[in-house]
Amino acid sequence: MSQSPTDRRNILALVGDFLFFSIGFAFYDPLVVIPAFVNEFTGSELLVGVLAALRVLFVTVPQIWAASLLEVQPRMKPVLIWSSIGGRLPILLLAVAVFLWAGTHTWLVVLILALSVMVFFTSEGLNGVSWPALVGKVVPEGFRGRFFGLGQFLSSLGAAAAGYVVNRILAQAQWARADRWALLFLCGFGWLMISVLSMTFIREKPVRHAATTVDLRRTLRTAWHYLGEDPWLRRMILAQLVLSTAASAFVFFVVRARQILPDAAEMIGTFVILQSVGSAVAALVGGLLVDRVGSWAAIRAAAAAEILALAAAALAGFGRYPLLLYFAAFFLVGFVNGASWWSFSAFLLDLATEDRRPVYLATTGILASVTVLNPVIIGALFAALRPELLFGAAAALATAGLALAWRLRRALVAGPPAAS
């Protein structure tokens, strides 16, 4: 498929955003870096769960407002840029706070960390609607799977390089412990802001909307209507909810690894690298599946990888090779994270027309908020039960999620199913 110069410019700008965001995110990774930081400075598993719950809450609830806003905006790009700038500035504040107070006022730093998590993931919640909707608008149909695959592959390589830097920074024993972590967050802030710069090169044509004012109630009514009207949307959301509930255990992998692996504290960057490699493999596999088979096939692959990741972590506490099993678990977590969000997004982009996409995306996001307490519950159980039992139970739940995802196969090739 041929592309116009504007198409190529937009694709390059979006791939740049993809790449630079992933590099910055590796220094602020909510599944490895943040839990490791909290575990090292507080030793609280429950706090790890609370921060994970805040991430889920603040990344999901704002999405319905984002959809309502986009219903009246002629362009999505300004919303995306200003949301990103506002969400990433608190990471700079966190870096300064860790540098100044991590050794003396730990709980103040934890509060600032919680603030940064809430603001950053509020921004990502808004972007979770505007960014895929913008991709659907400016990336030609038929090239989206390859776009997602290329962007994910390059960003995974960048994140792997960032993981190496994470290891090198944390290994500098001559530096104060707080200085090392402050530098990690500062690096994350810098690269995340470069990704914003890449967004500015996107060219987007304005469109007229029937709505002229932001109206949350109208958007909620529309979302409810679409949910009742489209059984494929309901099926996709149910599969996503079950899989995301099981994936809530991922944040505790690094906590358990630090308990049973003697050198795990020095492997934080290695775990980030393994996630990045898994994400790169997901890009190569998923991009081809989306364009040549269907987005439903990429969703299945991500669900299968999720089961294997949880099973590996469960077996690590009982087996003879815990290090290898945790290496496999983090690789598979990377595959899941690298394939899940954009395979579900690609499914929605195919399922919905352009005018419906923001509300479809927001509907999936807002309903995901029902999983907000899962990390807190797992954090409370983590200290009371053997973690491997929790990981095993999560693997069983992910198996149910795969069974639900299996039903999505004919959504886009056989027409609407009978309502259920």
Helix- and strand-based class? mainly alpha
Largest sheet: none
Task: Tell me the β content.
Answer: under 5%
Distance between the amino and carboxyl termini:
38 Å
Looking at the structure, the CATH topology is Growth Hormone, Chain: A
Key attributes of the depicted protein:
single chain; 420 residues; mainly alpha; Growth Hormone, Chain: A; disordered C terminus
Kindly summarize this structure in a few lines:
By secondary structure, this protein is an all-alpha fold. Helix content is 76%, strand content 0%.
Give an account of the 3D structure:
By secondary structure, this protein is mainly alpha-helical. It has a single domain, classed as MFS general substrate transporter like domains (Growth Hormone, Chain: A), CATH 1.20.1250. The chain has helices at 5-26, 33-41, 45-60, 63-70, 77-101, 106-138, 144-170, 177-199, 216-229, 231-247, 253-260, 268-292, 295-316, 322-351, 357-367, 374-384, 387-406. 57% of the residues are buried.
